[in-house]
Amino acid sequence: MSSVSMPANPDQPEVGLSVIALIFGFLSLFLGALIAVPGIIFGHIACARIKHNPYRFGGMRLAVAGLVLCYLMLLASLVVLVYLFTSPAHMHHLADYLGYSLVLAEG
Fold it and tell me: Among 13, 54, 64, 106, which one is least packed by beta carbons within 10 Å?
């Protein structure tokens, strides 16, 4: 006897990538650019699939929400990195707080 699983409702569009983009968007709030970049990739793939075949793929609002969160956190991560690299005094303070030794070339 063959056991083939059919979807519960074949008329429902697939929203898998859209949900992944949204999850990565929420995770990027805590992990920053590390998760934001894959979230942006998944979000754009989901949007492209939805535009190409809207009857098979769904979740455009989920994908857009994930993209917005990922882009905002990528921008915030870049602003923090630029700020830390342009002000060495704050970088030394952060390194001391985290317990790391930071040696910067004195010019």
Answer: 106
Which phi and psi (to 5°) does residue 57 adopt?
Answer: -115, 140
Q: What is the largest CA-CA distance in the chain?
A: 77
Q: For 14-54, what is each residue's pLDDT tens digit?
A: 999 999 999 999 999 999 999 999 999 999 999 999 999 99
**Cα–Cα distance measured from residue 57 to residue 93, given in angstroms and rounded to the nearest whole number:** 49
Backbone angles phi, psi at 95, to 5 degrees: -65, -40
**In the 8-state DSSP scheme, what is residue 107?**
-
Q: Give residue for tokens 């317990």.
A: 99
Residue 63: how many other CB atoms lie within 10 Å: 29
Q: What is the DSSP code (8-state) at residue 96?
A: H
User: Residues 54-64: pLDDT tens digits?
Assistant: 989 999 999 99
Q: What is the number of alpha carbons within 13 Å of residue 49 lying toward its C-beta?
A: 18
Domain extent listing, the chain:
16-98
